[in-house]
Amino acid sequence: MNGDIMRRDAAHSIIGACRQGLAPDALRTRILPLLMRAVPADGVWWATADPATLLFTGTYQEEIPAKTKPYFVQNEFLADDVNKWTDVARDEDGVRTLVQATGGELSRSARYSEVFEPLGFGDELRAVFRVNGASWGLVCLHREGRRAFSRQDVLFMKSISPHVALGLRAGLVGATLDEPHGRTGPGVVLLSSDLAVTGWNQAADRWLDELGYDRGPDAPLPTEILAVEARLGDGSDAGLPRL
Q1: Which of 9, 82, 170, 223 is the most buried (most CB within 10 A)?
Q2: What does the pLDDT read at residue 195?
Q3: Beta partners for 96?
């Protein structure tokens, strides 16, 4: 009963925050602690998404090593595995767990065998923030050991999904309206035949700053750029990748 009350209070607070017109990063900062209180997790990955392509437009993670980013992108766009974001976005609930997808045999997932298990993670819960068929954000929660996500966890995520989607959409629209005139524009990043970055235009330079890319010779590319690279290289006809 106490758990039900706590989840109800967390949902009420999350819905209230989603109605405040916060920018996407500010909204995440406000609601993620509330979400984690209702659905405890040991690691989290969060992203805003382009609803037309499901490519990541802004990513954030806690308690997941940064060096795993390229692997997750390759797994998502180029490898066979369960619970791909495109699958979760088409799911009736818009929420799936790794235990559910593998029938409890987590080793059936390459992500689990190659990344989660070495990190000490077990079950994974993926949810899309979706409203009217459009997914504006994604969240992936991880638990250590054998602690599986419950049906109550899935139902909670399903219940808040449209509210978070509306909050993210409102924040993205508001951020666009607040942009100084003339500062926005198509950002073009040039890639070699092996998908290495060789240059970019002035507009892209601003977007790369926003993504935290420091331009150093050994600096890892942002997850958002890695995702576009992967989509370009997979021969997919799922639509033009964009940020």
Answers
A1: 223
A2: 58
A3: 126
